[in-house]
Design goal:
The complex is a heterodimer of chains A (458) and B (251).
Chain A: H1 2-30, H2 37-73, H3 82-97, H4 106-146, H5 152-191, H6 194-199, H7 217-223, H8 227-258, H9 261-276, H10 279-300, H11 310-334, H12 338-346, H13 351-380, H14 383-388, H15 406-414, H16 423-457
Helix pairs in contact in A: 1-2, 1-4, 2-4, 2-5, 3-4, 5-16, 8-11, 8-13, 9-11, 10-11, 11-13, 12-13, 13-16, 15-16
Chain B: E1 2-13, E2 16-27, E3 31-35, H1 42-48, E4 59-67, E5 70-71, H2 79-85, E6 86-89, H3 100-110, H4 117-130, H5 134-137, H6 150-162, E7 168-172, H7 180-193, E8 198-202, H8 206-212, E9 215-220, E10 223-229, H9 230-235, H10 240-246
Parallel strand pairs in B: 3-8, 3-9, 6-7, 7-8
Antiparallel strand pairs in B: 1-2, 1-4, 4-5, 9-10
The chains are: A mainly alpha (458), B alpha/beta (251).
Chain lengths: 458, 251
């Protein structure tokens, strides 16, 4: 039903576009047009689609809760809790849809009938109202077209608002996510002291699980220390960068300065394919190939190596990040103006001198930017760590042991059954917002570094 | 006395031929101007003289170019050494995004010319003085070269080129991006420099060629149409095409 309605509105909008344009051509024969004919079409189409679609959207948002209020009115005298009411409403809906399998009481049956009835009324009302709006707005717009009003300005204003709403949506979603993280994190910090979270060195949230009832506050104190997670996150990111920065930068330099056009044409896309491999594939590559390989080599050298080691996860993560650095630094170095290269070559500088003394410094802001972007990627990477470096939050600086990261722990906390009010679940939000703050901080540094160097080099 | 002697130079970009049998004698410590309409090959020829065409992958140079009896168009040539001896100034000022000091010190550093910091300071000062820029920048040598005005940037590029005491300086339309005052300054500078170095300048401005040069070569469609003393080329050319170009009938 809804689909038909929306399709109808959109088809009508297209039709009115052609109609408006045609009408403009008719007007053209007797008087001067105020805009190109297509603007007449846009004007009609916008008036046709926008009001109807807005009302449709608002209706779809509010209809369910209004229907729900009507249904639950009958239950107000029974003194039920919010959850019980919700359960009843769910039952009514299931009954109406014919998927309910429990006991059917008369009362419930009545409600279901009422629900079906209400839905029917709502649907017809919706169609009627939308048709009315379509007729009204189209006739209004058509009168404007007939009068040959100014067409360009309203269309431009309409487009401006469409763009505004789109960006507003993006901003609101961002704010919403940050606040939901923040509020849940605040609730978590009511149960666990923020000091214990930031400076505690022991992460073992499972310990706090108690069937029915509140966990022991003493246990809580020692279960949510995030230091091992932060340490693990940065440690693995560090290993990853040790792999990615040298290889990425050197291959970027090769691609931009040394490789002939033929090589570049093929090598660059191939390196970029690395960025397209799903991280979960890197994950099992790390867990099944690199991890055991590291362990065997370590064992052969007489070292104690865990099968899930930070080294394996970090190294594979580094490989994953190579294309970010190589491709971006290649781009920024290629963007260095050719006349700087010419200037350097004309002074008798060799290729490597030119790269070292002219190209690289001139491209440095972009390169630093790409590296910091890569660090954010590494810090936020989840799958490889979950699969290859284990889930035990050890506080260790030994790359051969297993360690865990913030993102991996969020996964551990939120998979499987969880209770929403539980500090264990809420700790995921606290971790999330810490991670968010860390990446934000990195980005701010990146931007300011880039800005500082840009001032210097431009 | 002849400094550079080019014989039957042919240049190809891929399958397209850009220069046809160009032969020219460039005299020592004189200014030689190369004029001609856009795309006539004068810049291409200039870039043969310090092997800058090497940078262009598809470019191929045939023929013989001798500088003091050293064959320039040879695989065995040490390009780094050649470019130390043959400096170049480009159409658009292209100082490095470094300080003024570092810009001038660039050449002496890569060629290991200065033995000490004092010597380097001396080279930088002398070069900037020769480029008539010293008085304007002596108090701000540690500022970024790209922050200077267009004319100052071009003189900085000239200072950079003469910092390694080259014997030849190639100039590829060095004033085309500059205003008349900056242009006059550069032309004055060229006049001073020719006491010590051989200068080859490509220019679109015929009046500039007439003002600064002793010899002029006229290129058209990849061929050197006429070459001779500037006075003669401008007052009494042998070739009708040259005559037409000089008087502004085409180009």
């Amino acid at each position: 039903m809804n689909l038909i309605l929306v399709t109808f509105i959109i088809l009508l909008a297209f039709t009115s576009y052609y109609f408006g344009r045609k009408k403009a051509l008719v007007i053209q024969s007797s008087q001067r047009l105020t805009a190109l004919p297509k603007f007449y079409g846009y004007y009609l189409a916008a008036w046709c689609a926008a009001p109807a679609l807005i009302i449709f959207a608002l209706w779809s948002v509010f209809e369910p809760s209004i229907v729900k209020t009507f249904i639950l009115q009958d239950y107000t005298d029974q003194n039920l809790t919010k959850n019980e009411l919700q359960l009843i409403y769910t039952k009514v809906k299931a009954l109406a849809a014919g998927t309910y399998t429990g006991n059917i009481t008369n009362f419930l049956d009545e409600s279901a009938n009422k629900y079906i009835q209400l839905k029917g009324i709502a649907n017809s009302a919706k169609v009627a109202i939308i048709l009315a709006i379509l007729i009204f707005s189209l006739s209004f717009a058509y009168r404007s077209v007939q009068k040959n009003d100014r067409m360009r300005e309203p269309v431009e204003i309409f487009l401006k608002w469409v763009l505004f709403v789109a960006s507003l949506g993006a901003v609101l979603v961002t704010i919403g996510i940050v606040f939901s993280l923040l509020f849940e994190a605040i609730r978590f910090f009511q149960a666990v002291k923020i000091f214990d979270f930031i400076f505690g060195t022991h992460w073992y949230p499972a310990k706090t699980f108690v069937r029915d009832g509140q966990p022991d506050p003493e246990l809580m104190k020692d279960a949510f220390g995030a230091v091992p997670l932060f340490a693990g996150t940065f440690f693995i990111a560090f290993i990853a960068m040790c792999v990615a920065i040298p290889i990425g930068l050197l291959s970027g330099i090769y691609l931009s300065e040394y490789a002939g056009r033929g090589i570049r044409k093929y090598a660059k896309p191939i390196i970029e394919i690395l960025a397209g491999i799903p991280t979960v594939v890197y994950g099992f590559f790390a867990a099944l190939t690199v991890g055991p390989f590291v362990k065997e080599i370590g064992n052969a050298m007489g070292l104690e190596v865990s099968a899930e080691s930070a080294l394996a996860a970090g190294a594979v993560m580094g490989v994953m990040i190579i294309p970010f650095i190589s491709s971006l630094s290649d781009d920024v170095m290629t963007a260095v103006p050719q006349n700087l290269r010419d200037g350097s070559y004309a002074m008798g500088a060799t290729k490597s001198e030119t790269v070292k003394k002219v190209i690289f410094p001139a491209a440095l802001p972009g390169i630093v930017g790409s590296i910091l972007l890569a660090v954010s990627r590494a810090v936020g990477e989840t799958m490889i760590v979950v699969m290859a470096s284990g889930l035990a939050a050890n506080l260790t600086m030994n790359p051969l042991e297993s360690t865990s990261t913030i993102t991996a722990q969020i996964v551990v906390i939120l998979i499987g059954d969880q209770q929403f009010g539980d500090p264990k679940t809420q700790s995921a939000f606290a971790l999330g917002i810490s991670l968010f703050i860390v990446t934000l901080f990195l980005n701010v540094i990146a931007l300011s570094v880039v800005k500082k160097y840009r001032e210097k080099y431009e | 006395m002849s400094k550079i002697k080019a014989e039957n130079v042919n240049v190809y970009y891929g399958s397209k031929q850009a220069l046809f049998d160009v032969s020219i004698d460039i005299a020592e410590k004189e200014v030689t101007a190369l004029i001609g309409p856009s795309g006539c090959g004068k810049s291409t020829f200039l870039r043969c003289l310090n092997r800058m065409n090497d940078v262009i992958e598809i470019c191929r140079v045939e023929g013989s170019i001798k500088m003091d009896n050293l064959e320039l168009n040879s695989r065995k040539l040490d390009v780094v050494r050649l470019r130390e001896n043959v400096g170049m100034v480009f159409q658009k000022p292209n100082p490095f995004p470094k300080t003024i000091y570092e810009n001038v010190a660039y050449g002496p550093t890569i060629h290991g010319i200065a033995q000490s910091k004092e010597e380097m300071d001396q080279i930088v000062e002398t070069s900037l003085k020769k480029a008539a820029l010293w008085n304007e920048v002596k108090d701000r040598l540690d500022e970024i070269g790209t922050g200077l005005s267009g004319g100052q940037q071009q003189r900085l590029c000239i200072a950079r080129a003469i910092s390694v005491s080259p014997e030849v300086i190639l100039m590829d339309e060095p004033c085309s991006a500059l205003d008349p005052i900056a242009t006059a300054q550069i032309e004055e500078l060229i006049d001073d420099l020719k006491k010590e170095v051989t200068i080859v300048i490509v220019t679109h401005s015929m009046s500039q060629a007439a003002r600064v040069s002793q010899k002029t070569g006229f290129f058209h469609l990849g061929k050197l149409i006429e070459f001779g003393p500037t006075d003669k080329i401008f007052k009494n050319p042998d070739n009708q095409q040259t005559q037409d170009y000089i008087t502004g009938r085409f180009g």
